[in-house]
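Hi C.,

You asked whether I'd gotten around to modeling the 347-residue construct. I have! Everything is below, sequence then structure, no commentary in between.
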Amino acid sequence: MKTAHQSGRFVIIGENIHTSRAVKREGKHIETLPDGRLVIRFTDPAGSPRLLTIPDAIRASKDAERGRIRHVRAGVIAGMSGQEPEATDGRAYLQTLAVRQIAAGADYLDLNVDEISVDDAERQAAMGWLVAAIEEVTSVPVAVDSSGTDVIRAGLEAWQGRTGRPLINSASFERLDVLDLAAAAGCPVVISAASPHGLPASADERVANASGMVSLATDRGLSLDQLYIDPLVLPAAANPEAGRACLEAIAQLRARFGEAIHITGGLSNVSFGLPNRRLVNDAFMALVVEAGADSGIIDPVTSSPEQAVAIDRASRPFLLAQDLLLGRDAYGRAYLAAWRAGLLAAT
């Protein structure tokens, strides 16, 4: 898709192969078989129907008690179990998620296994296994995503590189060793606008923090076109200034660093806690592209950059979402009133 960025490309980092991801236990994805098993029905990349049996560890979890099934975690546990047919089905399920995102336009596949275990060695093993499983079917590189540098390193070591260098997600002032890892591997890297003291409150803080990280990255030999700045997208429902501060930071960063650098972020974070998240996400994506972002960490199966950019900006739903995102509708009072009145339900 065309963007304000010189290359005209919007780089999609497909976000949903994370062990934190969950679906409703009583929703359309989960089925209870006559023998009592909880399963997910899916069709694998070869076109064969399969069942992912939800492992006992997931069924007995606190999340399941609250009505949520961590389906990606289920796939990793099953895939690594060594038991058949569960192992083959778990691997096929995760590969199916990857193929769907690639078909929807993903340029990278973001992989995260941090919720698989509290043990770092187990997370390293899981990341290595997952990277190898996804590389069997992917036509795009992976983005190795973790809060642990050793877990990222395990993912890089497992990657054979047939479709290019992986992206590392992410480096920050508190994780400068990730910059060293990216420089040594020659990999592109997401750099965070967080400070050593926490999340930034303003556009200026985001720009200052990100600029400091860019300087540290280039000092290590990384080029601007290897850097993906994450200005930190925060929920607009919790902070009326969050959306506007992020947009202003994007515009300032694009002006400061020019066309070579990339600007990305977890765009769907902005809609946490709001009804009709799709509308808010689409409106925000249109605004971030206009501000100068050329990338997003999104699920392309459910979020289309082309559709977002083509949104009708004169429509009342868009204007309500825009006011919310720009802080003109503090805490979304008008937006929520329109939702309750049924004016946004069909959007």
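If it helps when you're writing up: Residues 1-7 have pLDDT under 50 and may be disordered.

Thanks,
B.
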